[in-house]
Design brief:
heterodimer; A: alpha+beta; three-stranded antiparallel sheet; B: alpha/beta; 6 helices; 5 strands; disordered N terminus
Chain lengths: 519, 165
């Protein structure tokens, strides 16, 4: 019996540790641990509730946009303005969030996940004239591998030529995500940490030149997605097609739904372009009852008060708690484990009957002669993310043309309330819920249940492991020193535990020689 | 397909960028310095930018800059409140080990930026040793006491840049 420990696993962001106990080459037990304390919600207590939409964006450097919007949805309800969001406000929120999806998914595939499949070392002896590949070659020659590690050795299956093509697309993708990032900022006001997302709508005003600038960017992104992103995912799928059978997980999926099509005050009834729902392994869709969401802390380093709904959630750290192994809580729906993310959203749309999603998904499955349960896999997650990127980018262009310059984007409201609000939303990485309790115009309680909490949470009181843990258990590991299977599974979820301190620590060096002396 | 051009026609040649999480006490050092600098009537060649916690998103704000001044909390093994001044080149001597603990922070982003020609011609980091990086809003006394001095250091950098350009 051997124990494989991978720490940290998130290539670019956050602090995640995975421990897998391997017996006869197969994972018998798996523990996914978040190694950083969160509980940032405590900072919001006793503040002006509107501060939430600004402060929660600082929780995370990766999805500030989604946190800002989830907070805005919760505040809409708390201030009673949830039924009166203008069409412009609704559409602008969709555009800001949608552009962020495009940015985040491109970043995930190329910068975070692709290097588990693509061998960047193929550039080490590159002799051609592609300036991007020459730059990567120079990086490697100088030993500047920072963005390309951690990595394992061995199971890279693309041909030399395919590796070179993929690495050059890695560099192209850096430029493309910059462009998507600009698209977020057109109406978000500023990236990172958007200024325009507020309770009651959006403060940005749609003008003809902004609409044109947004669509201009989206056109180029659609071109990139069709010409590079989708084909590259298929190229990887071709060489690693066994990964349609690896990393299935809990086979139960949840989406809160995203991209509002109306302003129904009840978020569970609001029409959303990507529908809400629970999808079971037999591909049945059920409506969500948010009252059934609870969080448990049996195996988390928090004081245990049993399963609690987020409105009543308590976050008191208990660092020495026996048996606990994570700073992440265990969220459950009706006591059940749920996977969240692009795969959950695409499955909900697929089962709901969205023709575009069905055509794209069936097209991919047809290419690999696979049945829909092949979607419950590492490659299923990558394919769902790529398909979603394309469909969202195309939809954004249509929505941008529905904006009405000169019409209002914001609806005013009364600040003096004693109330509650629930913000159900979908971040690129999955279901995101914010819950606020307001008393006397001040925040009394605030809880955010984030996508990676659903996916990477620890075992619950009933002994059910979290989705990532379930994906790992039963996996055959060919080479325990290079556990490719495990990192590929974990990264297919796009885990993000970046609620980190961004203190620059240059290799932990003593910087005494750079001290600025007294004047 | 050609790489898209950036959407702005021109960029202020000198970018002063604050990095850090204001929800982590002393990690809000840079934000405090940026606010102090905002009180000055700065030359038009200068842009102040609050980058928050999103390092990898910074590549495009590096585009087209002559000089980048980064303000950040820096762990350099000295007493809390100690100020540092260094360039990224000065701290990246030697190769990174293959499996180093890391996330794509500022230094990695500057390197990724090289791949897409989004690298300032010159970068300098003005840092301050944090005392407390627990959750919360507000600075420790040791760090707070250095805001004025750090602001002056940034102003010196700005003046040198203006004089030599």
């Amino acid at each position: 019996m051997a124990k494989i420990v991978i720490d940290p696993i998130s290539r670019v962001e956050g602090h995640m540790k995975v421990e897998a106990v391997v017996e006869n080459g197969v994972v018998k037990e798996a523990k996914s641990s978040g190694m950083m304390y969160r509980g940032l919600e405590n900072i919001l207590v006793d503040r002006d509730p509107r501060d939430a939409a600004r402060i929660v964006q600082r929780i995370c450097g990766v999805c500030p946009t989604s946190h800002g919007l989830a907070a805005a949805y919760a505040l809409d309800e708390a201030y009673g303005v949830n039924g009166n969001i203008t069409d412009n406000g609704r559409i602008l929120r969709n555009l800001i969030q949608g552009a962020n999806y495009v940015q985040s998914h491109i970043l995930h595939f190329y910068q975070l996940a692709a290097l588990d499949f693509v061998d960047v070392a193929a550039c080490a002896d590159y002799a051609g004239s592609d300036p991007d590949l020459i730059k990567v070659k120079d990086f490697i020659a100088r030993g500047h591998l920072g963005p390309f590690v951690p990595r394992y050795e061995g199971d890279y299956r693309l041909s030399k030529e395919e590796n070179l093509v993929a690495v050059s697309h890695y560099v192209k993708a850096l430029n493309m995500r910059r462009l998507a990032h600009e698209a977020v900022a057109v109406f978000g006001g500023k990236m990172p940490h958007n200024m325009s997302i507020v309770a009651g709508g959006v403060t940005a005003v749609p003008t003809i030149d902004k609409i044109a600038g947004f669509i201009w960017r989206m056109e180029q992104l659609i071109d990139f997605i069709n010409t590079y992103y989708l084909p590259d995912v298929l190229m990887v799928a071709n060489r690693y097609s066994d990964y349609f059978g690896v990393g299935a997980g809990c086979k139960q999926f949840m989406s809160f739904g995203c991209f509002d099509l109306d302003s129904d005050p009840d978020l569970t009834k609001r029409q959303r372009w990507l529908p809400q729902g629970i999808v079971t392994s037999d591909l049945k869709l059920q409506r969500i009852d948010p009252g059934k969401i609870t969080e448990e802390v049996q195996n988390s380093w928090f004081a245990d008060h049993g399963a609690q709904h987020p409105y009543d959630g308590i976050t008191i750290p208990e660092r020495d708690k026996a048996g606990a192994y994570s700073w992440i809580k265990s969220p459950r729906y009706d006591g059940e484990v749920m996977e969240v993310g692009p795969l959950a959203r695409m499955l909900a749309s697929y089962v709901h009957g969205d023709k575009a999603v069905q055509d794209m998904v069936n097209g991919v499955l047809g290419k690999f002669k696979a049945s829909p349960d092949a979607l419950f896999s590492v490659l299923g997650r990558h394919a769902a993310r790529a398909i979603e990127t394309k469909l969202v980018a195309e939809k954004l262009k249509d929505w941008a043309l529905q904006l009405q310059p000169g019409q209002p984007t914001f609806t005013d409201f009364n600040l003096d309330v004693n109330s509650r609000g629930m913000g159900l939303h979908e971040a690129p990485r999955g279901a995101l819920g914010h819950w606020i309790v307001v008393e006397g115009g001040k925040t009394r309680n605030y809880q955010a249940v984030v996508p990676t909490t659903w996916n990477a949470g620890p075992m619950d009181a009933k002994g059910q492991p979290g989705p990532i843990e379930q994906s790992l258990i039963g996996t055959r590991v060919k080479d325990q020193r290079n556990p490719f299977e495990l990192v590929r599974i974990v990264r297919s979820y796009d885990p993000c535990l970046s609620c980190a301190v961004h203190v620059v620590t240059p290799k932990g060096e003593d910087l005494g020689r750079f001290v600025v002396g007294a004047e | 397909m050609e790489t898209a051009a950036c959407y702005r026609d021109s960029y202020a040649p000198l970018l002063v960028m604050a990095v850090g999480n204001i929800l982590r006490m002393d990690d809000g050092f840079a934000d405090a310095v940026l606010n102090r600098l905002g009180e000055y009537d700065l030359p038009e060649e200068v842009e102040l930018f609050d980058a928050g916690t999103s390092a990898i998103d910074l590549m495009e704000v590096f585009n087209g800059r002559k000089k980048l001044i980064v303000i950040d909390a820096v762990r350099g093994g000295q007493a809390p409140g100690t100020l540092y001044r260094f360039s990224p080149q000065e701290v990246e001597n030697g190769a990174l080990p293959m499996n180093s603990l890391h996330q794509v922070g500022l230094l990695e982003t500057l390197k990724l930026g090289e791949l897409v020609d989004c690298k300032p011609e010159e970068t300098v980091v003005i840092g301050c040793q944090p005392e407390i990086t627990e959750l919360g809003i507000g600075l420790s006394e040791a760090v707070k006491a250095q805001i004025e001095r750090a602001s002056q250091l940034v102003l010196q950098e700005i003046n040198q840049f203006i004089e030599s350009n």
